[in-house]
């Protein structure tokens, strides 16, 4: 019996363990940290062997195959020893895709992945049997085991792609590529770019790559490293023959001379970046033969994603906006770009080697006060101290929101858009966003 060892007992790990057991593997789950109670119960109920707060190497190095959680860096000693022993180390996406012949839409990029994946699923679910997985919701492996959808929309991070080798989505989307997570890529942007393009490495001319045709990083990489896929770019700036572009206030999507036109005036999501997300999602829907009417209606009634430019409450004519999912500078760029009123900006957290320069124009134009929310705010104070009259630091969300309440006047926005990871003060970006919303509701 083949031995599958799962490193990491979270959503993707436990999903993989269940699918592996069903497919006849002897499964062992090992987590260096604590495994959440709900996942322990699943493992115990399914009689799957597990350990926590340690990695017993004797029980790991005898594996035939290893599924590694995306949070575990490849640089650690244990993973290096597995590689040296020629034991395949793969991601959940790679493992689960071997057990389904569903049509897969794989979505990656530095920003907009979650919104584009959720929106794509929303456009397809009326007409198709379709699951939403990857970085969101229930694990892909678990859905392959329990639901057996005919189609999947997968949000896939570069960390997951790094451990993919034969994975081949029929439709791939790269929303954009900007510097992020460079600490995992030897601080080399090229390594990170190559990682994102792994989504298309096994595609053939019968598969599709949808990408931002205005993104110079993507366009340059494609020019120097051609892929086999049929290319369908989307653009706000140029006319596209095969793909999507903006013509005045209409999105025009053409695939093999079959064109559909969508008005942008009725889009439920605001901001230029969301026109791009809508273009990418609608191109998928058009490829998969969803009716124009369905696409149009779905774009109009889409509710958006929690923690992504989420309007929380209006108090004394001040709008509070939760953009906790903005864990890098480019995401915050979109947030500040879409602000149409003087803004009190709450920023900070664990800096991943950020360069804040692209934000300067918006900070000068739109930001009236900055509240730094992090353990170490020195870089923010140094970078923005001269640009705004008020810059304050704190390490408590409740205090940050109270300060914002005092500083903001009628007609202003209060925006939580951290541009940083959350791990210095919070469990994750969801925890950060929920604390923000609770603090606003308690004002």
Describe the protein's topology.
Layout: E1 3-7, H1 11-22, E2 26-31, H2 37-45, E3 49-52, H3 57-60, E4 65-68, H4 77-84, E5 89-90, H5 92-97, E6 103-108, H6 113-124, E7 130-134, H7 140-146, E8 151-155, H8 158-162, E9 171-174, H9 189-197, E10 208-212, H10 216-224, E11 230-235, E12 243-247, E13 250-255, E14 258-263, H11 272-287, H12 292-301, E15 310-315, E16 318-322, H13 329-337, E17 343-347, H14 360-366, E18 367-373, H15 378-384, E19 390-394, H16 397-407, E20 413-416, H17 429-441
Parallel strand pairs: 1-2, 1-4, 2-3, 4-5, 6-8, 6-9, 7-8, 9-10, 10-11, 11-12, 16-20, 17-18, 17-20, 18-19
Antiparallel strand pairs: 12-13, 13-14, 15-16
Helix pairs in contact: 1-7, 6-11, 6-12, 16-17
What's the β-strand tally? 20
CATH architecture classification name of the largest domain: 3-Layer(aba) Sandwich
End-to-end distance: 59 Å
Rounded to an integer, what's the Rg over CA atoms?
Answer: 22 Å
Largest sheet data = 9 strands, mixed
Please indicate the percent range of residues in DSSP E strands (runs of 2 or more).
15-25%
Shape: globular
How many H/I helices?
Answer: 17
Total number of distinct structural domains: 3
Q: Strand pairing plus helix content: what structural class? A: alpha/beta
Could you please say which CATH topology of the largest domain applies here?
UDP-N-acetylmuramoyl-L-alanine:D-glutamate ligase
Helicity, as a percent range: 25-40%
């Amino acid at each position: 019996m083949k031995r599958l060892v799962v490193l990491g007992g979270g959503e993707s790990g436990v999903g993989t363990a269940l699918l592996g057991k069903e497919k006849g593997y002897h499964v062992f789950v090992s987590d260096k940290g604590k495994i959440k109670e709900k996942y322990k119960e699943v493992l115990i109920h399914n009689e799957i062997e597990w350990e926590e707060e340690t990695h017993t190497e004797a029980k790991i190095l005898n594996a035939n195959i290893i599924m590694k959680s995306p949070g575990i860096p490849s640089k650690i000693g244990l993973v290096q020893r597995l590689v040296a022993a020629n034991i395949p180390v793969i991601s959940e996406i790679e493992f689960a895709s071997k057990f389904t012949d569903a049509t897969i839409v794989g979505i990656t990029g530095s920003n907009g992945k979650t919104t584009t994946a959720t929106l794509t699923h929303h456009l397809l679910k009326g007409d198709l049997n379709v699951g939403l997985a990857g970085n969101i919701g229930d694990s892909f492996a678990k859905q392959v085991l329990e639901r057996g959808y005919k189609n999947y929309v997968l949000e896939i991070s570069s960390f997951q792609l790094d451990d993919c080798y034969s994975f081949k989505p029929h439709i791939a989307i790269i929303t954009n590529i900007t510097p992020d997570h460079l600490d995992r890529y030897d601080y080399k942007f090229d390594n990170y770019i190559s990682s994102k393009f792994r989504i298309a490495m096994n595609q053939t001319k019968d598969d599709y790559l949808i990408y931002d045709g205005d993104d110079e990083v993507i366009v340059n990489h494609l020019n120097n490293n051609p892929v086999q896929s049929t290319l369908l770019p989307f653009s706000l700036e140029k006319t596209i023959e095969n793909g999507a572009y903006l013509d005045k206030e209409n999105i025009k999507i053409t695939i093999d001379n079959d064109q559909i036109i969508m008005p942008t005036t009725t889009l439920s999501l605001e901001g230029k970046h969301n026109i791009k997300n809508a273009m990418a999602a609608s191109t998928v829907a058009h490829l998969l033969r969803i009716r124009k009417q369905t696409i149009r209606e779905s774009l109009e009634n889409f509710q958006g994603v929690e923690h992504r430019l989420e309007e929380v409450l209006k108090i004394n004519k001040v709008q509070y906006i939760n953009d906790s999912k903005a864990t890098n500078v480019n995401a915050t760029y979109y947030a500040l770009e879409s602000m149409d009123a003087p803004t009190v900006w709450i920023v900070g957290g664990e800096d991943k080697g950020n360069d804040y320069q692209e934000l300067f124009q918006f900070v000068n134009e739109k930001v009236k006060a900055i509240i730094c929310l992090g353990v170490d705010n020195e870089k923010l104070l140094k970078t923005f101290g001269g640009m705004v009259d008020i810059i304050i630091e704190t390490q408590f969300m409740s205090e940050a929101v109270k300060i914002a309440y005092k500083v903001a006047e009628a007609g202003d926005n209060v925006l939580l858009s951290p541009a940083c990871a959350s791990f210095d003060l919070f469990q994750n970006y969801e925890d950060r966003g929920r604390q923000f919303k609770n603090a606003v509701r308690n004002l």
